[in-house]
Amino acid sequence: MYVIVVGAGEVGSTIAESLADAHDVAVIDIDGERVESLVYEVDVLGVQGDGAELETLREAGIAKADMVIASTDDDETNIVTCGTAKTVSGAFTISRVKNAKFLDTWSHSEGAFGVDYMVATNLMTAETITRVIGLPAASDVETFADGVVQMAEFEIGAASPVADQTVAEADRYESLTFAAILTDDDVVIPRGDTVLEAGDKVVVIGSRESVHTFAHEVAPDVESARDVLVVGGSDIGYLTARMLQERGLRPRLIERDPERARELAEELPGTTVLESDATDREFLEREHVEAVDAVVAALDSDEKNLLAALLAKRLGADRAVAVVDAGEYVQLFEAVGVDVAINPREVTAEEITRFTHEHGAENVAIIESDRAEVLEIEVDADSVLVDRPIRESVGDLPKGVVIGAITRDGELVIPRGDTVVHAGDHVVVFVDTDVLDEASTAL
Questions:
Q1: Quick one: 195 and 279 in the same domain?
Q2: The domain that contains 246 carries what CATH number?
Q3: Which of 65, 98, 205, 339 has a Cα at 20 to 30 A from 140?
Q4: Whole domain around residue 49: which residue ranges?
Q5: Number of domains making up the chain
């Protein structure tokens, strides 16, 4: 497959790197230094120029392109790029947009703007925040198979009841699979005698009920969030509050700008909108931030989000979730006390990645900045899994692959050694990135 990626920023570079080993990739960016840097690091064709211009697309080989991914930081540029590409090619076009209003327009007319698939960054970020808030103690959450299967990542705290237990001792759930343990240096595929140590991050896959039960085992003192405070009336803040109130919660939202606060109050009848500065300590104390289950920092800069999140935590809030625009700051935020840092660009790259998997993954979750992936794949007749018990087929899979769950006709099937996988089944698998290409071919 020949793919043209427009935009060599964080999203575009991540996508290009994930595609370069298996596909021919061209990357366009108006910044020549970005293009040169990416070409030096990854085997791609680099083109300096405006991806929305026909001549630049032709230079990148639009006539032979199978897919065009417009991933710049400007919504209008991405939409125009896809429309321009459609005038001279039949390539599948994907447009990244931040503002959900474009998604609303596009969804009412198939192929509108010349876009075959649109990824709304702010909407997907809000969905990710809402999922994390809904699962106590989780640092990452994703659903598969139309919600039947859930994947979650938890960090084992020193005071956690499962710390220093073996996987066999901690695994008390019929419909839960311990897929991996992530240490600072390695991705470990656990066995029954593998010990869960404080500081380890464990990835589990299973039914929603079993994953939620395990969450309470990991952190029994962390309750499900009922009182949520959203800091910032940005598009992400607005969408997060809207989703929370749709789930039956009544969140509070702090917005400093009076006009924006009035607008939000009108659009969010199930949310209490407060006009104030979220870094005003006295105001937060009057609003009893110490009783808040979760604070979501969704302001217009990483520095403000870090300050708001840490201040709320210092005043007693149970958990803090912060939006982090710069991907390199994610680990820093979590190291200094933010419970979960969510990077919108990584969320976007994750969604676009599922379109680029050679064997058509139904869904993809990227773990720990691409240390591993969790894939949902519909099994076909060529898979090494088909019509064989799992204990026989795993020998044909590379080390670093774990079958986490199976769904058949919408029902969960617990993967055991004697479970036979059939064509048409949906299999959710954990895959170490080092063996991703080999695993994708076999599956």
A1: no
A2: 3.40.50.720
A3: 98
A4: 2-115
A5: 4
Rounded CA-CA distance 304/300 in Å is 7
Q: In this predicted model, what pLDDT tens digit does every residue of 197-217 receive, in sequence order?
A: 998 999 999 999 999 989 888
Residues 234, 206 within the same domain:
no
With a CB cutoff of 8 Å and minimum separation 6, the contacts of 36 are: 46
As to burial, measured by CB atoms within 10 angstroms (0-12 exposed, 13-18 middle, 19+ buried), residue 410 is exposed
Report the alpha-carbon distance of residue 290 to residue 299 in Å, rounded.
20
Q: Quick check: 284 and 278 in contact, CB under 8 A?
A: yes
Question: What's the whole-model pTM score?
Answer: 0.85
CA distance 36 to 11: 16
Q: Is residue 391 part of a domain?
A: yes
Residue 415 and residue 434 in one domain: yes
DSSP of 255-301: ES-HHHHHHHHHH-TTSEEEES-TT-HHHHHHTTGGG-SEEEE--SS
The answer as to whether 122 is a domain residue is no
Tens-place pLDDT, residues 314-340: 999 999 999 999 888 998 999 999 999
Say whether 360 sits in a helix, a strand or coil. coil
